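User: Can you predict the 3D structure for this chain?
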Amino acid sequence: MPENVKIGNQTAFPAEPSELPFQFAIDNGFDAFEWFSDRKPWGQGWHIDDAGKEDRLRIRQQAHRHGIALSVHCPAEANPLSDGFQDLFNRHVEFACDVGASNINTHLFTEHGIENYLKSLTAAIEITARAKVRLSIENTTITGPDDFNYLFSLIKPLAAKHVGMCLDIGHANIFHETRNDFIRYIDRLSNAVPIIHIHAHENYGDCDSHLTLFTGPSQTNSLGIRGFVKRMKERRFKGMIIMEQWPSPPELLINARHGLSDFFKD
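Assistant: Here is the predicted structure, written as structure tokens:
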């Protein structure tokens, strides 16, 4: 396993209590973890407001003690063009600094144009640069390779080297132009698009089902996952690969991590 590639899991609203996935990562020797503010209207899930000063210190100490790299995921609906985004984003940066996280993740929104999205994201780019935290921008099920190629052609003149793409392979498999062929999605990404963070899950191209690796299509045919690993190695990927699910049983995450690690070793 390359030293600079770390594999881990994420908070998930089905988990009770909400910090159970982090303890699972500690107990099973994972070397990455992502805190995702995804509390549901009925109360399930984790949010940064759950973590007070003492909680944040404990998370920082535990992550350091167990060699776990941390990432922070803003709420999925957090759009830079929406009112209240900057305050919400700033609070996630503060949490990231408190716990020692090295990455903050947010989604790409294109409905008002990529130029307007980037303009609204400027303050977030600046604050993450000052905080020395990487900013990853994630593809959704409706944003394609051309969107990211264009976005990063606009980012390049800004010399914002801490900004990159979060490649979500499950979302790439749903995108209408590359449905059931997330490898084609990756191949259409320009080499000028820096992939700095990855979300790993599977589906059958029908819905964003967030299946654990090796429980979906790759259970019977692993060529897609092998092709994904091959391309990440060619791109000299350095960062976290986050498994975005809390399966039953959660031990499926251990199998997924082992399988992915083995492919990176080949």
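The radius of gyration is 17 Å. Residues 5-265 form a domain with the TIM Barrel fold (CATH 3.20.20.150).
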